Amino acid sequence: MKKQFILFSITLIAAASVCFGQASSPTPGKLAKETEITDFEKAAWEAFKNKRADTFKKLLSKRYSGVYAEGIKSADAEVADVAKIDLRDYSLDDMKVTFPSIGVAVVTYKATQQATFAGKDISGAYNCASVLIVRRGKWLLVFHTEVKAQ
Question: How many CA atoms within 13 Å lie on the side-chain side of 142?
Fold first, then answer.
């Protein structure tokens, strides 16, 4: 009986390691979702850059929060900042998207921008993260944060 138990345990461990060792290749559906999220994030930056406050507002959830060095902002405060920022140029790099649950996406990336806020230069590299949720079949930005890279 002891010998059978040991044999069973070894077989179970070997089978588990084979199962966990399988690399899951990205499915076309997952890649499409990731592209949809990165395109959404780029659209938000473009709306901000082009001072399209109405377009930008449509991308935000009513419960949106933005967390920055100067404080926490609501959706209305974030939309009001569109007029105060002169975003001359930017690039978004190393974008990574994860889906922690159905209808939720988290995107992290590095943004490099040439910009001023209320006349003050805020150019530089930033580490960014956004959380998006699906509401009525449409992705909405519910959280965003930027930290100036050291």
Answer: 12
